[in-house]
Amino acid sequence: MEAAIIDATMDREREGDREVLVELVERAVRGDRGAFERLVEPHLVVALGAARLITGDEADAADAVQDALLTSWQALDGLRDPQLFRAWFRKIVIRSATRFVRGRRRLVELDLDAAGPIDSVEREFDRRQLARAFARLDSKDRVLLTLHHYWQMPVAESAQLLGLPEGTVRSRVHHALKRLRASYDAEVRR
Question: Which domain holds residue 120?
Fold first, then answer.
């Protein structure tokens, strides 16, 4: 009985969250900047982290997220289902960060300090090797690995975000990991 009450309460909270999300999207579409800020604010830290992984540069990541914010503000009226805002915004962030990488066409390095405190000299050395290996991947591989491992996005959601079949995403993540391992092994041998 208690479990049923808890489940019903949680369902009402989720429904309330959905209603708030729909209301925020509708208000933002009508030009309410405060509503738009409330929509995007919970996603900004993760968006910046993902953009940093893709671009390999703090400034480019911030620019990519700023570009994504502007794009999403301008295109918000095209969002068909307000409940899909999170996935829609992530897609815009990924596209924006990828555009910055393509425009730059240079080797990038992963910001190791953003990943957390370093326990030892050996661990720092390993992280730097991994960062260099990650930086040598092309932007498509970095996007896939960021979605799969940083955002821990399910394959189905990644497939929808990228506009690809699920099997293709699975295959590309698998091959991207193989390329990362090969690149890491090359770094270790250096």
Answer: 109-190
